[in-house]
Amino acid sequence: MPRHYAIVPAAGSGSRFGAEMPKQYLDLLGRPLIFHTLAALTAHPAIERVWVVLAPDDPWWPRYDWSALGAKLETVRCGGATRAESVGNGLRAAATVAADDDWILVHDAARPCLSRAMLDALCAELADDPVGGILAVPVADTLKRADAGQRVAATEPRDGLWQAQTPQMFRYGRLLAALENHNAVTDEAGAIEALGLAPKLVRGDSTNLKVTFPADLALAAMILRGRK
Ligand SMILES: Nc1ccn([C@@H]2O[C@H](COP(=O)(O)OP(=O)(O)OP(=O)(O)O)[C@@H](O)[C@H]2O)c(=O)n1
Ligand SMILES: C[C@](O)(CO)[C@H](O)COP(=O)(O)O
What we know:
globular; EC 2.7.7.60; 6 helices; 2-C-methyl-D-erythritol 4-phosphate cytidylyltransferase activity; binds cytidine-5'-triphosphate; Spore Coat Polysaccharide Biosynthesis Protein SpsA, Chain A; isoprene biosynthesis; IspD; seven-stranded mixed beta sheet; single chain; binds the ligand C[C@](O)(CO)[C@H](O)COP(=O)(O)O; alpha/beta; 2-C-methyl-D-erythritol 4-phosphate cytidylyltransferase; 228 residues; 27% helix; two-stranded antiparallel sheet
């Protein structure tokens, strides 16, 4: 039986958020934001281990107490210059534990509202899938293409368009090979697609937001508060 592991890239600087520290350490309901992300993953019974990929010189991680998250958690200080590099380095760090056929769930540190139900749906829908897949939501708004003056150049058809989220779940060996050959991608599915494969879109929901701008943090707090 394949095992399930998670990799959490957490080596970003949060430049679009613009805080005095990387957004993954900002306070969210009394805990660092990433605590909520990791709690969702470590609490899931199918996930055996969670590797958190930190920047090599990250001074924030040691300032907090992570013991409530239990023994599944492991930190690796091998974050790279891009998200894809951080994930690739995390996968290599997992090599002594993960086998080629094991499932790897890659989940952004910056998505703290991942729920048990979303994880259950992803794992159940992909259990027998030959490729793997991602959580995603169909695009709900009308899409405009901007010109150089920030005026509407065109209205784009949204039929068939989905917004990619994480976790993105693929077999360890294939994902590692895919990222080694195609690392100019913004998500793992992009590297798998470059192999000519078609990842499955597992419908999630918009509460699994990525905290990118300050308003997202307030929204995340509302979402998590509403679940208590
Ligand atoms: N070199 C990088 C860049 C990003 N990430 C991680 O990838 C996830 C998604 O990236 P994003 O939201 O873009 O985070 P940042 O890169 O921190 O934000 P920004 O692009 O605004 O600087 C985050 O959990 C981030 O920490 C990473 O591990 N290594
Ligand atoms: C992987 C991702 O969360 C899918 O939406 C997203 O692409 C990561 O953020 P980035 O801004 O592209 O690094």
